[in-house]
Amino acid sequence: MDRATGITLRILRGHADLIILAVLILIVLPLMLDIFRLNLVGKYLTYAFVAVGIVLCWGYGGILSLGQGVFFGLGGYCMAMFLKLEASDPASTSIQSTPGIPDFMDWNQLTELPWFWEPFHSFAFTLFAVLAVPGILAFVVGLAMFKRRVGGVYFAIITQAVAAILSILIIGQQGYTGGVNGITDLKTLLGWDIRTDSARYALYFLNGALLLTVLVVARLIIGSKFGKLLVALRDREDRVRFSGYDVSNFKIFIFVVAAMMAAVGGAMFTLQVGFMSPSFVGVGPSIDMVVFAAVGGRMSPVGAVYGSLLVNWARTAFSESFPELWLLAMGAIFIGVVMLFPNGLAGMVDGMKGGFIRSTARLGGPTGASRGAPVPDQWPVGRPRAPTACERGALEPGGSVSVTGPSDHDLADRQGSLAH
Amino acid sequence: MEGLTLEEFGAILVMQGFNGLSYFCVLLLMALGLAIIFGQMGVINMAHGEFLTIGAYATFLLSWLSEHYAPWFMPYYFLLAVLLGFAAAFAVGHLTELALIRHLYRRPLDSLLATWGLALIMQQGFRSLFGAREVSATLPDWLLGSWQPVSGIDIPLNGLFVMALTMLLTAGVLILTYRSRWGLQMRATTQNRVMAGAVGIDTQQVDRFTFALGCGIAGVAGAAFTTIGSTGPTSGSLYIVDTFLVVVFGGAQSMLGTVASAFSIAQASSILEFFMTGSMAKVSVLLTIIVILMMRPEGLFRANVRR
Amino acid sequence: MDKRIVLAVEDLGVTFDGFKAVDGVNLYVEQDEMRVVIGPNGAGKTTLLDLICGRTRASSGSIRFLDRELTQIPEYRRVRLGVGRKFQNPSIYESLTVLENLEVSYPRGRTVFGSLAFKRTPEVLQRIEEVAAMVYLGDLLQVAAETLSHGQMQWLEIGMLLMQEPQLLMLDEPVAGMSVSERQATAELLQRICKGRSVVVIEHDMDFVRSIAHRVTVLHQGKVLAEGSMAKVQADPRVVEVYLGH
C-alpha cells in the first residue's frame, strides 16, 4: 500500500462516523422513504443544527443555554418574512383592504408595511439577516453576561428568560409577527414553488449538505487548540484565565457560532415545512433541544444528529398512537440521559466498541492523540469527554457530595458566577 | 387616561397595587422554596411549579368533596386545604428527593434537565388524573366579597387572606431557619457540607427535609393560587421562569433579597399591566430584570466574601 | 552589585467586609530570587498571591512588575506580561492529555482566531517535550491528566506555567500531598527554574522551605512580620511566638 492511500485510509477511518452519517442522510434515507416521510426527516434534521451548537456550547464549553430556540426561531422568522412578502404581492392580496401587505397585518388593521419588514424584500439581505440577527443577539447577550463572568446556572436562567420574552413578544405583537399562528401560507422562493415534491427533494438535499458542513465546522473547531481550550475552560476556568486567555471572548465566540448554526436550522425549517411560529421559540421547545444533544451524547456533534432524529421520530410515532404517553416518555428521556447515560448514544457506541477495538472513529473528533506523535497502544487514549455518572458522585450510595476532581466544575461555575 | 380624576386614578393605582400583592404572594412562596433548595443543595428544581399545582389540586379536591359530601364543612375546608396542600407537596417532595434529587447535588445544570423531565411527567400525571380542563375550587363565603376602607377602593378579602397566609409562612420559614435546630443544621450544611457531616449532622436527613419543606411551601402557594385563578395541569409551570428570575434577582442566598425582588417584580408587572397590554407589561418587566442583572449579576443583595 | 527588582509591592491592602486580609504589605523580589512566604493559616498568603495575579482586586497600594503598574490590568494581561501563578489545589485540565495540557499553555494562539488557526508545529512539540522532561513527565505525554498522581499533577501545573516562560512565578503550596522523594525532586526543580526569573513560593513545610528559600517573608494577620534569611527569621522572637512556636 503506498503512502498516499495510507493517509487517505487514515483520514477515512478518523471520520468514519461522519461518512456513515453522510451516506445515511444523502443516500439511504432518500432511497428508503417517500417524499412525505423524507420531508419529515428533513424537519427533524433542522433541529440537529441546534443540537450540534448545543454540543459545542454545553458539552465542550460547559455553557448551557436554555434559549437556543430563540436563535432557531429568529433564523426561521427572517426566512419566513422574505417568503411571506413574496407571497403577498398586490395581485394575490387584492381582496385585502390594504393589498400588498401580509394577510395577518391586514387582519390587524395595519395599513402599511412596518419598517423592519422592508429590507426583507431583498433575498440577499434575508440570507445575511438569517445569520446576522441571531448572531448579533447572541453576541450582545454573550458580551453582557460573559464579560461580567455570569455563567453556569445564571446563564441558563437568563437565556431561558430571553426565550420567554421573545415568545411573549411574538405572540403579543400579532400585527407585526402573525402572533401565535406564526407566519403561514408561504408559497414560493424567488418564484420557485417550494411546495412541490421536486422542490422538497431539492431542499432536503440542501439541508443535508448544510448540516454536514456544520458538522465539519464543528469538527474543525473541536480539533483545534480552540476546542481544547473550550474543554479546559469548562473544567478549570481560572486556570485558563491565568494562562493568559481572555476567557469571555472564547465563550462569546462559541455562543455566537451555536446561535448561527441554530439559525441556519431555523431558516431551513421554514423552507421545508412552509411556516414559522412562536411554538419553536419558547422555554419548553428550547429545553427540548438540549435533550436532543444529550440523547446523542453531549460531547458528540454526530451523536447530536442521531439524537435529534431519534427523539423527534419517537415524538411523531407516539403522537400518532399514544399522544398522552409522549410527555411521560420525554420526561423519562430527560431523567434517563442525566442519571443513567450522561454520554448518550455516543457513550454507548464507544462503550460497545471499547471492548474489541481501541476506538478509531472518535466521536469527539480527532484529538491531539491521533494527530501528534505516535501513540503506543497500552496508553489510555485521552480525549475530552464528559465526566461519567460515577465520577460525579451520581451513583454514590449515600448520595453525599465529594467536592473533588472533575465533579466540582459545576460547583465552581456556581461560585465563580456568584462572587467576584 | 382622560376622564379620570386624580382621586379615581389613585384608587386604581391602589387596587392595581393590591392585585400585584396576590401575585407577589404566589411568587414569594414559590421563590422561598426554590431559594432554600438552591442555596442548600445546588439543585435547580424546574419541577417546582408542579408542586404548586399539587397544592392547587389538593385544594380543589377538598373543595369538591366538601361541596358534595359535607356542605357543613364548606366554611372551614380552606384552612384544612392549606395544610393538605403543604402535606401533599411535602410528601411528594420527600419521595422526589429520595428517588432523584439526592443523585444531583451540586450539579445544577444536570439537576435542571432532570427536574424538567420530572415536570413533564407530573404535568401528564395531572392531566390523566384531573383532565386537561382547568378546574376551580369553590371558595367559602367568608373569602368572597371585599373590604372597603374608603369609598372607591375595593380590596378583595381572598387577597387579604392570602397576604396574611404568606406573611405567616414567611415568618415561619425565617424563624425555622434562624432559630431552630434544623435551621442551624441547614445553615451549617450550606456553608461547609463536609465539616457539618464531620460534627455529626446527618446531612442527608437535613437535605431531604429541606427539599421537602421547599416543596411543601410551594404546595401552600398552590392553595393560595386557587383563590386568584383556576387550576390546570400546567398552571404551576407558567410561574417557573418568573420565580427563577425572582431568586436570581434577589441574590441567590439572601431571604430578604428574595422578598424584595418578588415584591418589586410583582408590583411592576401589576402596575404596568394597567398602562399597556399584559404581554407588553410582562416583556418590559422581564427585560428590565435582565438588563439590571447584566449590570449587577450578583443580584440585589450579596455578601462581599472572598472566593 | 544589586540585582534588578522584578516585583515591587508597596503598601498593598485589601478589605473583605471590613476585614483586612492584607494590610499595608511591602515586598520586593529580585531577579533570580526564590522568595518563600510563610505564616499561620489566615495570615493572608494566598490573598497576597491573588492580589498580585489579579484574582482579587486591591483596595489600596501598588504592585509594580518590571516597572509596570499591575493593579488596573486585567488578569490575562498580567499573565501575558510574564506573571505566572500556580493554585493551591493542582489546577489542571483532567480530561486532556499531559501533552494537550502543555500545548494549551503555549503562549501563542491566545486569541479566539489565533487559537483556531494554531498549528502544532515541530517547535511547539519540541518545547513541550523540553518542559515535560524538566517536570519529570517526559514519558507520560500521552496520558490523560486525570490519571496522574497528586504529585505529578502539581508538576504538570508547574510545567504549564513554564510553557509561558514567566518572569515571575508564584507557587501556592507546591509540595502539598507529595511524598518525601517527590519533595526532593520538586526542590531540585525549583532550584533549576529560578534561574533567569523570580519565584515566590507559599509553603508550610519548614524543611522544604529551608532547602529552597533564598529569603523568607513572614506574614501575620495580613502584615509583614519579619523578613530575611531563614536563620534570621527563625531567630526572631516574634516569629517564634506567632508561628514556629506553635
Polypeptide structure, described:
The complex is a heterotrimer of chains A (about 425), B (about 300) and C (about 250). Chain A is mainly alpha-helical and about 425 residues long. Chain A has helices at about 5-15, 15-30, 35-60, 70-85, 105, 125-145, 150-170, 175, 195-225, 225-235, 235-240, 245-275, 285-295, 300-320, 325-340, 345-355, 370, 410-420; strands spanning about 190, 190-195. The N and C termini of chain A lie far apart (about 60 Å). With about 300 residues, chain B is mostly helical. Helices cover about 70% and strands about 0% of the residues of chain B. Chain B has eleven helices and two strands, in the order H-H-H-H-E-E-H-H-H-H-H-H-H. Chain C has about 250 residues and is α/β, with parallel strands linked by helices. Chain C has one domain (about 5-245): P-loop containing nucleotide triphosphate hydrolases (Rossmann fold). The N and C termini of chain C lie far apart (about 40 Å). The mean pLDDT of chain C is about 90. The chains are: A mainly alpha (about 425), B mainly alpha (about 300), C alpha/beta (about 250). Chains in contact: A-B, A-C, B-C. Chains A and B meet through helix 7, helix 13, helix 15 and helix 18 of A and helix 4, helix 7, helix 9 and helix 11 of B.
What are the SSEs and their pairings?
The complex is a heterotrimer of chains A (420), B (307) and C (246).
Chain A: H1 3-14, H2 16-32, H3 35-60, H4 68-87, H5 103-107, H6 123-147, H7 152-172, H8 174-177, E1 188-189, E2 192-193, H9 197-223, H10 225-235, H11 237-241, H12 247-273, H13 283-296, H14 301-321, H15 323-339, H16 344-354, H17 368-371, H18 409-418
Antiparallel strand pairs in A: 1-2
Helix pairs in contact in A: 2-9, 3-9, 3-12, 3-13, 3-14, 4-6, 4-12, 6-12, 9-10, 9-12, 13-14, 13-16, 14-15
Chain B: H1 6-41, H2 48-69, H3 74-99, H4 108-130, E1 146-147, E2 155-156, H5 157-179, H6 181-191, H7 193-198, H8 203-226, H9 240-250, H10 255-275, H11 278-295
Antiparallel strand pairs in B: 1-2
Helix pairs in contact in B: 1-5, 1-8, 1-9, 1-10, 2-3, 2-4, 2-8, 3-8, 5-6, 6-8, 9-10, 9-11, 10-11
Chain C: E1 5-16, E2 19-30, E3 34-38, H1 45-53, E4 60-65, E5 68-69, H2 75-81, E6 83-86, H3 98-104, H4 112-117, H5 122-134, H6 150-163, E7 168-172, H7 180-193, E8 198-202, H8 206-212, E9 215-220, E10 223-228, H9 230-235, H10 237-244
Parallel strand pairs in C: 3-8, 3-9, 6-7, 7-8
Antiparallel strand pairs in C: 1-2, 1-4, 4-5, 9-10
Helix pairs in contact in C: 3-5, 3-6, 5-6
